[in-house]
């Protein structure tokens, strides 16, 4: 998952890429080569041992989170945001007094960078830092910077400084394509923020945006909050599957993989039981998004959100989803019949197929048909081996190596976070990836990629290195056992690393369009493409070694694993179609004709097929409604494009260096600096394994 946030015209967008003609000669052209550090160590070994030395530097200087000096304490966020806001005032004055030209775009991008460097970092810290004081300070920084951005997006004088440039045809024609596109993107965000409105309505737009930010934050917290029930209401023999707290049982998830039908049923009904406050929050969020869209001239929030994406409008999205649903329907029914058959076989007394059944029983079917019990695979997928596999792949495809680097005191928020330097064989250091891979209390369960600092070409000719975080939830290693990954965990690792490499290789002049900062419905293409590499025997054979014996994983094991992914694939994808259509309806015409729960029930039964369970409200756990509001379809569209890229470019040889360089040159390097093109042909729904 790509974690993104829109703070108006001056911050990051979500992602894109596409095979386009490159205008960048060499990626290091005009840039100083980064020196190689002697403090780097091999990446595989670094992940198969517990981190050493992070607590031993008792007297060294404390550098602050991510090396930002101010962030050695929570109070530093206030200092950082005040510095950013002071710099913002200076840059706004400079933008308004500078004659129109390419320099105008550079100033806007520097303004965007000053705000993003605080807001993006704070966006991560507010959900991931183990200390409440840091989380609260980061939350306040997000709100402060977000409010400033919304004010800037309705600043008429600032808008006019950009408008003068874009209104002068001679000046526009003199701009290089990337500069022109970035200028147009800034202008586009002014327009969808309501710059054309009168003063009173512009203030209303700012107020609505700030309220939406607050509601989004509240909804995200509620989406992950556990539910509890008095323990006497649960059968005694299943209570031990949950956390006990006095006279209550705490349920913090769906327990989808539990072999006990009653445990899954209880978890589903308790975890998804409607919370009145969360329901009001969702309704308010959807209502305020609709009010904002209408205020700035769009018929629905979805129409506003899809401007600038590949799909362009909700009509195209719904056509795509309905066409896909039609193609899936027959195969989905067959999948449900197979799943129900397995349930009947194992639980003949209660064989009705319910929404809590498919994840577990499809796993049973895969294991039975292909003998892919995770315990057979995990010993071959130690975390160190998987990281070395990524290192081998990137080295062969792109001439890139990953090295572990010891972080300074205070640089990381938890002692088990690893820092990776991404190094090109001729260009040197490209950027840094912080790997927050291990489980801990209060850490979100989602696997995510966060941009901390975007890359850009600075005035002195140096390149501002991109910095990102990858967040997973892997088990810790023990004294005698490294962290062992299931096949699903391994695939997720490859997926998130696809986002990270997009960030590292998006070498744009402007941070506003660097790396993953491009249209949302292309955001997942590089990451989904990495899943294809993770499921190719030629790639897996390079790194899958038994952690004790060193034995390579037998080819038939990899083949069985790949074949097993086709089991119930239609039902899995049909579920995603249901989610995407639900998202479109919620962000479509308002007022909604029915309650969000009634819409959920109707949409689930029409586009998924399994019955709605009374007194549940899955939509209140649908956290993607915040970051991917009206854009959840992006996963499916990106999968279509990634499938085509794999077949046309890498299927024949996943290690081909010239193809890898072309992929970098024509797709990854541009970030959002080029107009994305829909690469799928007539059959846009060729998404299932064949």
UniProtKB/TrEMBL annotation:
Cellular localisation: Mitochondrion matrix
GO biological process, one term: protein processing involved in protein targeting to mitochondrion
Cofactor(s) needed: Zn(2+)
Entry GO MF terms: metal ion binding; metalloendopeptidase activity
Primary localization: mitochondrion
Domain annotation Peptidase M3A/M3B catalytic: ranges: 255-681
Keyword annotations: Acetylation, Calcium, Cobalt, Hydrolase, Iron, Magnesium, Manganese, Metal-binding, Metalloprotease, Mitochondrion, Protease, Transit peptide, Zinc
Reactions this protein catalyses: Release of an N-terminal octapeptide as second stage of processing of some proteins imported into the mitochondrion
GO CC terms of this entry: mitochondrial matrix
SUPFAM superfamilies: Metalloproteases ('zincins'), catalytic domain
Family affiliation: Belongs to the peptidase M3 family.
Protein name: Mitochondrial intermediate peptidase
Provenance organism: Myotis myotis
Organism taxonomic ancestry: Eukaryota, Metazoa, Chordata, Craniata, Vertebrata
